[in-house]
Amino acid sequence: MTAEELRQLYFEFFIERGHTLIQGASLIPSEDSTILYTPAGMQPLVPYLLGEKHPAGRRLVNVQKCIRTGDIEEVGDSSHLTFFEMLGNWSLGDYFKRDSITWSFEFLTSGKWLGFNPQQLHVTVFAGDEQVPPDEEAASIWEEMGIPEDRIYFFGRDDNWWGPTGITGPCGPDTEIFIDTGKPPCSPDCRPGCGCGKYFEIWNNVFMEYSRTADGKYVPLEQKNVDTGMGVARTVAMMNGCESIYEIPLFQPLFGFLKKLSGLGQEPDGQALRSLRIVSDHIRTATHILGDDQGIPPSNLDRGYVLRRLIRLAIRHARILGIDGHFTRSLAEIVINEESSVHEELAKNREFILDELSSEEIRFEKTLQSGLREFEKLLPNLTRNPAKTIPGRIAFRLYDTYGFPVEFTAELALEQGMTIDMEGYRKAFDLHRELSRQGGDQKFKGGLADNSEMVTMLHTATHLLHQALRDVLGDHVEQKGSNITEKRLRFDFSHPEKLTDEEISMVEKRVNEVIQADMPVICEETQLENALKEGATGLFRNKYGDRVKIYRIGEFSIEICGGPHVGRTGELGRFKIMKEMSSSSGVRRIRAILE
Questions:
Q1: Topology of the domain comprising 453-594
Q2: Which of 34, 24, 11 minimizes the C-alpha distance to 66?
Q3: For a FRET experiment, which of 235, 526, 527, 578 has its CA 20 to 30 Å from that of 537?
Q4: CATH code for 3-245?
């Protein structure tokens, strides 16, 4: 089975059961600049999980491109990818646990669909705690499906609960579905979630039935939702009897090219196999980031920094394989040729992808030279250390500031009869990674902290700000991200230079004029094509499908959006810009409040 065949089967199955196929969203969450990349299929749909009506209805199905920045260090094993596709079926206040579990079992085991042996299935459910009872309902439904009690496992919040600790909003238990690969257990305690490879997770069904309040209580939701995710690569691997996701057809052309370039034999193992996987995954991920219609170049900030890190890690592991020349462009061409039939944006943005990868390889060569010079500057002081040990914080600074891989530092240290304090390096690295995760793969709610009155007012104000910026600066202005709390709005937009004091004043005045005019805010549903003909803006519009919601603010603006909004602009108070600054290359950022 190929990835394309799996996608089509999945869509067919759920469309037969009343679901509407909607388009996946961009890898880059335009509505929330605090999130680096879309980490899950649910992310673009959060406003609808919170109660907004989706134009396509209450039963949805899609495939979403995802990137998990927190998984970068795990890549190289048999089951982790940085970039992956997630199939999902969604119930927005419609069906719940019974239908969700029943359909999952049918799709996995029916001969008409995937045809897995039911004996291979193991499932996990939420064990409960002092705040929420165990999910006996889900366990009971699985037993009705024929999964015996000894293949149903009750796990705690770390494994079977959706919803980040300490954050208010929708949350609930989930049930995860694993395939037993037939490998012998690694120990008597081996069970789903063990890293030995015996159990392979392929599907996760989240049951959003609670809302966490500000005082830490869990109250039942009026609108109960189902949010599922099935990993395309993982499922294809299991369908084809592969021991690793890297054995599926998708990766074979990449592996073949790298083996030929490096002179490796047909069955590499150990470090060579790990490096093959890392190079293939990271360049494929970089290709999809650059190929996204909102693609960004490598840089030292935020999303661009993650992209740069992926490319440079790939180059480092290519050197381990004995590949010294430029190779990223050729590898990206394979990805484009193999995947553009599904991801048309790759072909459309081919030149940008290839040029940026080539440029980054050249920049990295210069970076290595800079790192070498910095090491040589530090060397006289380092050699005075009687322990002949390079502190971990210095090794990490060479990596973080100069992009100088710690392996390179270790080689240079060895030449001087020295070693690196790797424990100190790992501590510095782990701290950096934790900070990256906090700014990266955190849950979000469409750029909104919540659905409170003040957040709703500020959300409407971003529409006014967006149009005012276009009026003052020009139609090149497009929203690049937003983040709204009860205290302020933050709005990122495309513009090549710092705004003048006069421009800021004009934007402020324009917004306040519209507020004072007390214009109505009207929501309509229409076809996407009609909305675009009417001039509706909405950089994130591809998440909505054929039918979209548009919000008209008098004759002032029209924008594709999922809400929430006030009824009239006169409710907003006085708009004031507090700060205007750079966000990234070609992108400015405004912080503003309502007084």
A1: Threonyl-tRNA Synthetase; Chain A, domain 2 (3.30.980)
A2: 24
A3: 578
A4: 3.30.930.10
Size (the chain), residues: 595
Q: Structure tokens of 372?
A: 């070498």
Residues β-bridged to residue 547: 527
Mean of the per-residue pLDDT values of the chain: 87
Task: Write phi, then psi, for 545 (nearest 5 degrees).
Answer: 95, -160
Tokens at 374, concatenated: 């910095």
Distance (Å, whole) CA 459 – CA 483: 9
Tell me 247's DSSP state: G
Per-position DSSP letters for 167-221, written without gaps between them: --EEEEEEEEEEEE-SPPPSSTT--TT-TTSSEEEEEEEEEEEEEE-TTS-EEEE
Domain locations along the chain: 3-245, 248-377, 453-594
In angstroms, the CA 517 to CA 464 distance is: 12
**Phi and psi, residue 413, nearest 5°:** -65, -40
Rounded to 5°, the CA angle 569-575-577 comes to 145
**Could you tell me the CA-to-CA distances from 247 to 95, 203, 538 in Å, in that order?**
36, 19, 39
Peptide bond into 47 cis (omega under 30): no
- The encoded tokens of residue 271 equal 């470090």
User: Three-state SS for 37?
Assistant: coil
Q: pLDDT tens digits for 3-61? A: 999 999 999 999 999 999 998 888 887 655 557 888 887 778 878 887 888 999 999 99
**If pLDDT is split at 50, 70 and 90, which confidence band does 448 have?**
low
Q: Residues 254-265: what's their mean pLDDT?
A: 89
- The share of the chain scoring above pLDDT 70, in percent, equals 93
- pTM exceeding 0.70: no
Picking from 339, 492, 432, the residue whose alpha carbon sits closest to that of residue 69 is 432
For strands 389-390 and 419-420, give the pairing.
Answer: parallel
Instruction: Note the pLDDT tens digit of each residue in 356-412.
Output: 999 999 988 887 788 888 888 888 888 888 888 998 888 888 887 777 778 778 878
Is the distance from CB of 13 to CB of 107 less than 8 angstroms?
A: yes
Residue 540 scores a pLDDT above 70 = no
255: Cβ contacts below 8 Å, ≥ 6 apart:
246, 276, 280
CA gyration radius for the chain? 25
